């Protein structure tokens, strides 16, 4: 039996054949097991010797099978490697490259620009507390901006952020009373607007906030002029027009000289030579006070720019809805900006 099994195991050509042999010889119904069972009929004094011999046989066959298994596995692996030869002369398959969304391009450009000026980038959530979106931004309960028509409330105290000012109010509270603060906060904002070529119920903003000792409107002007030149070209100039925001005093609206006609007047700027790009101002003392700062000891500016608006101007896009329809013919246009 031993010789027969040894010969068969030696000549097994595959792992499955070897496994069959293992079952055949060492399995429950195999000869080794049979020998074990037969032991009970032997005279008492022969049992130990017989048992020992059967066990030796069993161990011998097991270890032979084990060795053969290792050998066969190695062979199979070698065969596999042999067959799997990679032809390194074959040309590779080029992956289909996506391209950055124009809104992300503008967001990235703005972030890079402000990081270069020493700002930190802080992002917030889409859902914000009424406290930070309005109350802390000095927007009293009866202010039209709180009207249900403008805001999308989730419950009494939470809503989809209507402006990234909400993130700034949280940053302000967290930072108090440390100085200086220099942050930009990009984010999505939501308003109850009907969608058309220039309005969307959801869009993106990036807001900047700088608080320090004696930060003035002229610092704001210098910063925004730098931004306008980077975004729209070195020839650009900016101007401030008086405006109103509850969280800034004084408040301004900022225009840039038209990048299409360089201020001469064209359809893009409706013949005025100027294009409005953002709202800004000196942070209102009430806002500083509520966040835990002493308005006697520090001051600052804030500005909020619409990412869609900048992208539309920069790339000459005439309908805000193009950004959201995921039409590849539109998005592929921006490959050249990668
Ligand atoms: N929060 C304003 C808006 O959504 C923009 C703004 C930000 C104005 C900061 C002034 C200062 O329109």
Automatic annotation (TrEMBL):
Residues holding Mg(2+): 249
Molecular function via GO: ATP binding; catalytic activity, acting on a protein; magnesium ion binding; phenylalanine-tRNA ligase activity; transferase activity; tRNA binding
Pfam families, A to Z: Phe_tRNA-synt_N, tRNA-synt_2d
GO biological process, one term: phenylalanyl-tRNA aminoacylation
Coiled coil (UniProt feature): 58-87
Required co-factors: Mg(2+)
Aminoacyl-transfer RNA synthetases class-II family profile domain location: 178-313
UniProt entry keywords in alphabetical sequence: Aminoacyl-tRNA synthetase, ATP-binding, Coiled coil, Cytoplasm, Ligase, Magnesium, Metal-binding, Nucleotide-binding, Protein biosynthesis
EC number: 6.1.1.20
PANTHER family attached to this UniProt entry: PHENYLALANINE--TRNA LIGASE, MITOCHONDRIAL, PHENYLALANYL-TRNA SYNTHETASE
Assembly with partners or alone: Tetramer of two alpha and two beta subunits.
Protein name as catalogued: Phenylalanine--tRNA ligase alpha subunit
Native species: Faecalitalea cylindroides
């Amino acid at each position: 039996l031993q010789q027969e099994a040894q010969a068969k195991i030696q000549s097994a050509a595959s792992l499955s054949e070897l496994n069959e042999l293992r079952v055949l010889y060492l399995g429950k119904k195999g000869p080794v097991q049979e020998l074990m069972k037969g032991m009970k009929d032997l005279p008492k004094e022969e049992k130990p010797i017989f048992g020992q011999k059967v066990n030796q046989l069993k161990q011998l066959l097991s270890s032979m099978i084990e060795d053969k298994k290792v050998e066969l596995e190695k062979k199979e692996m070698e065969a596999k490697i042999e067959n799997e030869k990679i032809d390194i002369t074959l040309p590779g398959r080029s992956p289909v490259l996506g391209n950055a969304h124009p809104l992300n391009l503008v967001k990235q450009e703005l972030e890079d620009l402000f990081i270069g000026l020493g700002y930190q980038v802080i992002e917030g959530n889409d859902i914000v507390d009424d406290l930070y979106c309005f109350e802390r931004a000095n927007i009293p309960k009866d202010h039209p901006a709180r009207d249900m028509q403008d805001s999308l409330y989730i419950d009494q105290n939470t809503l989809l952020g209507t402006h990234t000012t909400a993130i700034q109010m949280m940053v302000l509270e967290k930072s108090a009373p440390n100085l200086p603060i220099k942050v930009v906060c990009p984010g999505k904002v939501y308003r109850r607007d009907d969608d058309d070529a220039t309005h969307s119920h959801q869009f993106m903003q990036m807001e900047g906030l700088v608080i320090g000792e004696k930060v003035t409107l002229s610092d704001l002007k210098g910063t925004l002029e730098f931004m306008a030149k980077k975004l729209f070209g070195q020839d650009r100039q900016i101007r401030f027009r008086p405006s109103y925001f509850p969280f800034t005093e004084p408040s301004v609206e900022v225009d840039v000289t038209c990048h299409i006609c360089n201020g001469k007047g064209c359809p893009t700027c409706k013949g005025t030579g100027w294009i409005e790009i953002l709202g800004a101002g000196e942070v209102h003392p009430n806002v500083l006070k509520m966040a835990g700062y002493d308005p006697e000891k520090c001051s600052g500016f804030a500005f909020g720019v619409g990412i869609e608006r900048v992208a539309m101007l920069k790339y000459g896009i005439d309908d805000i809805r193009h950004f959201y329809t995921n039409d590849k013919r539109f998005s592929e246009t921006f490959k050249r900006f990668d």
